[in-house]
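Bug #77: duplicate submission created two jobs. Keeping one. Sequence:
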Amino acid sequence: LYAEDPDAQWFPASLTKLMTAYVTFQALKAGTVSPDTKVVCSQEARTQAPTKLGLPVGGAITLDVALKVLIVKSANDVAVMIAETVARSEQAFVARMNEKAQRLGMTRTTFTNANGLPDERQVTTARDLAKLARAIIVEFPEHADLFSSIKVQVGKKTMRTHNSLLVSLPGADGMKTGFIGESGYNVVASATRDGRKIVAVVLGESSVASRNARA
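Kept job's structure:
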């Protein structure tokens, strides 16, 4: 409907986790993991920078809860835990992420990690992220409520979403925010009204307020 610099490469930051979720949904569909599969915190996961859940090494949650924490809290440690659970190593998981990106026609996207922490080689475009968002919505409607959740409970901890559009925009039902210093404020936003769903991808805004206004 509208585009501005849709093919300019940019750092995805935590929008990376949309692909982490997509690869995991496919593993769930294939039956190689289940919602009850235990996701364990490794030393590698423990050393990831915040935002994170902060489990001790050996601490575990179910994959179902891990996906909620991944999307709602945007936990960087949990992204690595999921990658290691689904593909045995983050490296093997990232190979799957890139394979799926190619298959979806995300021609200007490269992933080097599962969580979006800074890496100058990890780039994408607004158009590519729109393709990914569409694939998630069309192929995995059963996971739609994951992206519209405003909070997740783990033990006594309640974590809230960074996506304030879910509260402020009528019909908003997704999907994910992202921020690192290098990227500025990113969002893939979705909203449904009168049976029609629209996705907006905004990259590189200077504040949460301008990101939300743009979306």
